[in-house]
Design goal:
It is a single chain. The protein is an all-alpha fold and 137 residues long. Helix 1 runs antiparallel to helix 2, helix 2 runs antiparallel to helix 3 and helix 3 packs antiparallel against helix 6. The protein starts with 6 loop residues before the first helix and ends with a helix.
Length: 137
């Protein structure tokens, strides 16, 4: 069990890792890196999602403007879940009750990121962040 005194460090790692992974998802869409396919930046919805994921993921990872970046990222993931996974994928194949189950329509990542970023938004950057270095809470 991790002692409570280590909570600031584990939270910092949580923020950094979720930001880094989100940043990588953005680079898949914007640059075609990490096995992805680059899409036009103004293409709806993947291009806009790629921009948000790249910028917000980087900001969350380094802890700069963490709350607004995490709020935007959380919202994007909520839209991804409802627009892509429920309405486009889930409803077409599964019907309404089954479409709301993230495991059945590929929406697990969207739900996990949405709530992780909502938590980061509520908590702020914490230690090991640009915001803390600049004296912001």
């Amino acid at each position: 069990m991790i002692p409570e005194r280590n909570a600031p460090y584990t939270y910092a790692l949580f923020r950094i890792v979720f930001g880094l992974v989100f940043f990588f998802f953005g680079l898949q869409k914007t640059m075609g890196w990490f096995g992805g396919t680059a899409v036009p930046l103004m293409a709806w919805p993947q291009g806009f999602a790629g921009i948000i994921e790249t910028v917000a993921g980087f900001l969350i990872m380094i802890g700069l403007f963490t709350r607004p970046a995490a709020f935007l990222a959380s919202g994007e993931m909520a839209v991804a879940f409802w627009y892509i996974h429920v309405s486009m994928i889930g409803m077409g194949k599964l019907g309404m009750p089954a479409a709301l189950v993230p495991h059945m329509q590929g929406g697990v990542d969207s739900v996990a990121f949405c709530f992780a970023f909502l938590y980061i938004c509520s908590r702020g950057a914490g230690i090991w962040s640009a915001d803390a270095a600049m004296g912001k809470k």
